[in-house]
Amino acid sequence: MSDREIISTFKYVLRMKPEFMLSELRSYLKEEASVPHIYKILKPLLFDLGVDAVAEEEDFRLIRAAPQKKMELKDDEIKKNDLFFNSSGVSRKLERLIEQYIEKKTSKNWDDPIVMEKIRNAIRSQKASYWKENKSRNISYEKGYSVLGYLSYQFPVYFVQFQYLLYELAKDGLLKNRMKVLDVGTGPGTVPLAIIDLYNRLDNRKANIHTIELFDENIEAYNFLVPQYAGGKSNVTVEEPIRADVNKLDIEKLPDNIDLMVFSNVLNEMKELSMEQKAELVRNMSGKLSEDGSIILIEPADKVNSTEMRKLTIMLKRMGIKIYSPCTFMWSGECTLDTCWSFEHKRDIKPTRLMEKLAECDEPYRYINTDIKYSYAILRKDKLSKQMFLFPSKAKFARMSQMEMHDKKRINVLCSLMSGDLGDDKYKLYRICDGTSRKAIYAVLPSHNLMEENEAITKAGYGSIIKIFNVLVKYNEVNDSYNLLIGKGTTIESQYDDMED
Question: Does residue 466 carry a pLDDT above 70?
């Protein structure tokens, strides 16, 4: 019997019945076929056809789902998630799964002193490699203790930071009630685990997760952690990782109609590819996106990786993939700044029990990693932007591309806030941009000048738009940048009002 006949029969029954047992198909088929065989053929099609499969003993109940539509968060869902982010961290269930995986890999208790010291060695080795430059920087997860080091040190932060981004997408209306996700370079399943965690705080939302990973050690960890954390629930289904080198991937074999494509802390590690090759890879893979799908690029917040990611996003913009956030292009044209160092900063996470155990040594600071700073870009094929804004032709605001004309003068600017506070106790310092910058521009607020009229900059969120009135421009020759000095006569407004004022 051909696969086509089984698929055709399934679609026929689906049109007649909104709910039925998979075994019922057997009575419609001309030849005998087992339930596992039928399910194997139909499984890759179910999500796109809007069908949920619920296992019942040796059978499956097939249920026609509601049509795909934009996810709208309910009040109780927002409350649950806000509560999580007020004191975020890895759940105790997931902590224990990671500890159990360590025990499985080492055949010792997770907190055995020898195991702890080997994980410390792996963490030190990864951190040393991370700070190397160019092709000498080689972070590999081919060995078991490398993966255990990652799970112990980097994973908790990456796990939470992706949930911040996913939650922002949900609040912005960019997620759907049924999502197909592709995580490129999934490692031990950081992004799928983060999705499962957040979806545990949502009601009746569906996600189908596909992943790509090269290293066997990562796939082994993925297969232990992800299915168990999903717990057999029907709201999140996870597929077997596609074992492949992303550089040599047959893109045509990837699933179609992907709603969310994720490159989390992976492109920076592909040192064998040039910037142009990375952009071409992302562009080619974007062909698998649904028309209203999104791409998330996430990289570490250090200057090298952050600025490289910004260059990549501008290159992708030129290729026709639009930037949804955090950048806002307020004037016609595009950013030409080559050294844009911009990142998001969130509150620290709670350390895991494993992290605290590793810190029971002479240098505990080496093994506690709770600081969430990351650079990201959300890209789309449509023209949607988080901040849809263009200046009217007669707007009374200076372009940041023309700062040299305003040195030592007072001006008005409208811009995006592109950092948290980078300063110290004496000066608050913020990176700002309007999409035309040729040099780095900072808003500088001396503590003694902080007033009600200008405090909006201290409360505005990353990527949000602010107006700054009556600010003094000063060229910083040492850093080849411009500082906008906020005085007691400076007024700052968060977001924007009618531009006719």
Answer: yes
